[in-house]
Every structure is written in C-alpha cells, then in structure tokens.
Amino acid sequence: MNFTRWSARLPGTQRRVAARRTDHGISPAHRGEGSVPAARGEFEQQPETLPDVPALDDFSVREILGPLPALVALVHGPEHRVAYVNDAYAAAFGPRRTGAAAADACPELDELGLLPLMDQVLRSGKPRTVKSRKVRGGGSYTVTCLPAESPKDGGGVLVFAADVTDHAEAAERLRASERRHRETAVTLQRSLLPQELEQPDDLRIAATYQPGGTDAAVGGDWYDVITLGAGRTALVIGDVMGRGVRAAAVMGQLRTAVRAYARLDLPPHEVLQLLDGLASEIDASQIATCVYAVHDPNEGWLVYASAGHLPILVRDEDGTVRRAEDPTGPPLGTGGWLHTSGTIALPPGSSAVLYTDGLIERRGEDIDEGVAALERALSGATGAPQVVCDRLIRSLGVTAEHDDDVAVLVVQHPTRTGASAELFHNAALELLGGVEAAPRARAFASGVLASWRFSPELHDLGVLAASELVANSLQHGTPPMRLRLRRTDRRLIIEVTDGDDHLPRRRRAETEDEAGRGISIVATIASSWGSRRTPGGGKAVWCEFALPA
Fold first, then answer.
1. Are the C-beta atoms of residues 315 and 303 closer than 8 Å to each other?
2. Is the pLDDT of residue 8 over 90?
3. In whole angstroms, what separates CA 303 from the centre of its chain?
4. Which class for 355: exposed (0-12), middle (13-18), buried (19 or more C-beta within 10 A)?
5. Contacts within 8 Å (CB) and 24+ apart, 440-443
6. Taking the CB of the first residue and of the last residue of the chain, which one, N or C, has fewer CB atoms within 10 A?
C-alpha cells in the first residue's frame, strides 16, 4: 500500500499539510527574502551557555560531612585515633578530642561493638555494617564502617551511623506484642489440655505437650484420656491445622465435644462421625486431624478410628514395633466420609504411642521417614511412660526452639506378676437361659466373690447387682448371654452381655408395677453403672463398686 497516498485521507492530515506549506513550503522569494539562501549556521540554534559549576574537589570534607544528620566519625591508624567527628556526632555523644584513641575517647564505639569491626575493615579494606545496635543511653544505631584512604601510613576508617531509635522501639513494641500474644495462646492452650491425666486401673499413661519456639506460633495440638467404665479407656490425640489463639480455641471446643461423645460409649468411628459434623459448624476454615481409640482389658485390643492423623505405634515386649495403618479417613471438617474402626493388639507388656506431626515432620524430609525414625527410637525406649515420652522427644531432636508444637501420649499395658497379679482377676459364665439361669448366676457370683475375699457387705452387694443385671437380661435380652466378673486393685466390675441392642434406662417404677426396679436398684447400690452396644450386635450392661483404699 502507498502510505503516502492514503495518508492524505486520514483525519487532520490536510490541515497539517496546509500549515506546513504556510510556514515552510513558501519560497524565500515569496517571503520577501533574498534569492540566495543564508548560511546554514545562521539557522542553527546556538547552545545555551551554562554557569560554571564547582567541582567536588572545590568542597572541603567539613562542608560535606558537617551538616549531615547522620553521625560521622573518621579515625586513623591501627589505634583508631580520632581525626574528625561531625556536628551530629558531637550533639549525640559530645565533642571528641582529636588525636585520642577511639577506645578511650569514644566509649560509645565500644558499646556498639565497633572496635573489632574497625580492625577488620582496616585489615581487609572492605566495608562492614551492623544493624540496630544499642548504646547505654538508650539510642539505637545502624552503623557502617568504610575504609578511608589517607596520605599518611595506616589508612583510616569512616564510621557512618544512622539513628534508628524510633524504628528499634517500634520493632521492640511489636516483638513485645507478639510475645504477649504467644504467651496468651500458650496459656490458653495449656489450660484447655487436661491438667491431670486420668489413670485407669489396667494402664499406665503419660503425656507431654511442648509448644513451638519463640519464632513459631502456638498450634492446636491436644490429647486426652477418658475412663468409660467397666475398665475401658478412651485415648484421644488431635491437631488443629492452624496457629495462635484461634487454633487453641477450636481445639478446646473439639476436646470438650470428644469428652461428651465419649460418654455415649459409642464405637470410635461413630465418635469421629459426630465430631466431623461438629468441626464444620465450629469453623469451616479450620481442619483438624484426630485419632480416637478405646482399650478394653477383657479383649486385649485397641479399637481405633483415625481422621487424617498419623498412625498409632505399638511396641511389643520384645522391642518389635507395629504400625496401625488402616483404616484412615480424611481430616475432620471435610464431611461426606464414613469413618470405620480398626483394631490393633495391645497385650500385657506392650506400649502404644499416639503423637502429632510436630514430633516427626521435618522440612525437606518425607513424613514416612519421620515415622520410621520414631519407630527406631521407640524400639529401644523402655521405662516408665514419662521416661519414654522424654526419650522420644530427645531422640527426634525436638528442642525448645522447635518450629512446631508437639504432643505425645504414651500408654503402657504392664505385665503383672506376684502380689500385683493377685489384685487382678477375671471370671465369666455363659448363661444358657431358662429358669435355672438366674440361680446359677447368683451361685457363681457368690462363689467367685467369696474366693476373692471381699468383705461380707461387698459380697452381698455384688451378688445382688449380678442377680438384677442377669434378671434384666433374661427378661429383655436375647441369647447369647454372659456374666463377667472382674476385679482390679481399685474396683469390682460386674457386666452382663446379651444379643439384644436395646439399651436399658433408669425409670421410676410405680407402686403397682411388678418390674422396672432392677436398674434403679443397681444404680443405687453401685458406685456407677452404664450400658453400651457391642460391635457384633447386642449390648453390655455393667456396674462398678469402688474397693476400700
């Protein structure tokens, strides 16, 4: 395309062409000028003459450094003798005598830690800087030491200090605020954790919580131990994925909810199912992991359910470590998942460890490597539960400056021998039904309690409770039925199981009623009672009697 031809049609083009013809296109003759063009130089614009500017060499050092708001000092030679200080330096620290050694004449340089630094600058010829150093008077300075050439031997150092007192005080106020915030979060976190762990009859338990270092915000790790009755114990550990007071507050609500759901004596997966829905209601933006496990001394198993948490580790008496791998569901608060329960054996002499990710997770390492490292540490960890907790934390390199908070729960199922074993007994009777089941149960309970050498009063109360529980099961339950008696060093437990899953409840019996008083009698004479559904269908009804100290 011929742009010259078509550009004439562009808007405004003709007006610009006419203007150029008027100003430049008319010949000199038409403008009344001579026919001979003027010399080329007459039409060129002459450069503007600029005033003279003084060179840098025209200024003295005092004229340059004197008015500066920054503090400037010039020292000379290996003894750093004072050659010059500017007005700002003299105003801050007072006038300095020329020729005196800086170590004597300028104590502020020593307070700032500059004398060794000035030696380095003098030797290396390279500048050095220190940030926000504080002097005794309260001011803070950022100081740069520069090598300065001198016509005399030895050279010198130019000290250039900027007053950053306001910035340092603001930073200190910010750090103090962060410390108060962290202390508040730590205090809240510790207050929401159990102040004293419940100690079941059959287990020995210890736990440790360690907040992250000063540079790490407090997280939402928690643990708990809940006695469920009939010798069963719930073990809980969890981690809210967040930091600060908000995570600690969410953790407290979840822990309270777990204790409430545990009182329902539900299977572990049902407890997590309820907790999952509650976590979404508490704070949809917060996600938490959790393991809920139940230990039954009669079965020797740990029944557990996991919501995105790390696997439970079990150490056998011979040092072998086993990992509870499955099942594991997504974290709490995600919704739409049906959790399931798994089991892992916890025989006498074994230990179980529940923990949060702060114990094993390291930057740049796969989390499976951390779990493997914990397994190696656990295989050689012996002693009391608290000793095992401390050894695991040391073995995994957790220090006071660790970048994440850590919670560890150690559970030991001790092996009892000798006199200690005599305090723990079990006895069970299968009830075949029929009219003879009740008298057989009473006779069995009477003989067992007598052999365990209980007092006559406790013997009679135990036989009465066993009779009432068996009668209730015969009337309202279905086979198979079983009566189980168990004693520990602190309590007598009587439990009856049957195949019907309808849980009994205590009710007020009217005067004319012939039934409905059995559970009320048991609740009156026993220290505590309760019921739960069993995994295979059916129910268990139990009561406990506290033994004299």
1. no
2. no
3. 26
4. buried
5. 441/466, 441/467, 441/470, 441/483, 442/466, 442/467, 442/470
6. C
Q: What pTM, to 2 d.p., does this model score? A: 0.71
Length of the chain: 549
Contact assessment for residue 203 and residue 233, using Cβ atoms and an 8 Å cutoff: yes
Q: What span, in angstroms and rounded, lies between the C-alpha atoms of 401 and 397?
A: 10
Distance (Å) of CA 272 to CA 90, 256, 267: 71, 13, 9
Separation CA 356–CA 258 (nearest Å): 17
How far apart are alpha carbons 271 and 266 in whole angstroms?
6
Residue 61 tokens read as: 């050092």
Q: Is the bond preceding 480 in cis, omega lying within 30 degrees of 0?
A: yes
| DSSP 8-class letter at 433 | -
Give the chain's end-to-end CA distance (angstroms, integer): 111
The one-letter code for the residue type at 140 is S
Cα–Cα distance measured from residue 289 to residue 405, given in angstroms and rounded to the nearest whole number: 15
d(CA 116, CA 199): 60
The strands making up 491-498's β-sheet, listed across from edge to edge, are 425-431, 481-487, 491-498, 539-546, 528-533
Q: 């010059």: which residue's tokens?
A: 84
**429: nearest Cα among 404, 447, 414, 413:** 447
- Does the structure show a pLDDT above 60 at 73? yes
Average confidence score pLDDT of the chain: 84
Q: Which residue has the tokens 């708001």?
A: 69
Residue 384, token pair as written in the block: 């009391």
| Single-letter residue type at 531 | S
The set of residues, in sequence order, having a beta carbon less than 8 Å from that of 211 and lying 6+ positions away, is: 186, 189, 218, 219, 405
Kind and range of the H or E element at 431? strand 425-431
Count CA within 13 A, CB hemisphere, residue 456.
0
29: confidence class by pLDDT, cuts 50, 70, 90: very low
CB 505 within 8 A of CB 444: no
Which helix (DSSP H) or strand (DSSP E) does residue 246 occupy?
Answer: helix 244-262
User: What amino acid is encoded at 210 in this protein?
Assistant: Q
3-state secondary structure at position 17: helix
Cα Rg of the chain (Å, integer): 43
Residue (of 409, 392, 417) closest to 293 by Cα position: 409
Three-state DSSP state, 515:
coil
β-pairing verdict for 288-296 and 301-307: antiparallel
Average pLDDT for 293-309: 93
CB 495 within 8 A of CB 535: no
The tokens 């520069």 sit on which residue? Answer: 146
Are the beta carbons of 288 and 275 closer than 8 angstroms? Answer: no
Outline where DSSP puts E strands in 86-180: 128-134, 140-148, 156-163
Q: Apex CA 352: angle with CA 190 and CA 495, to 5°?
A: 95
Question: Which residue type, as a one-letter code, is found at position 266?
Answer: L
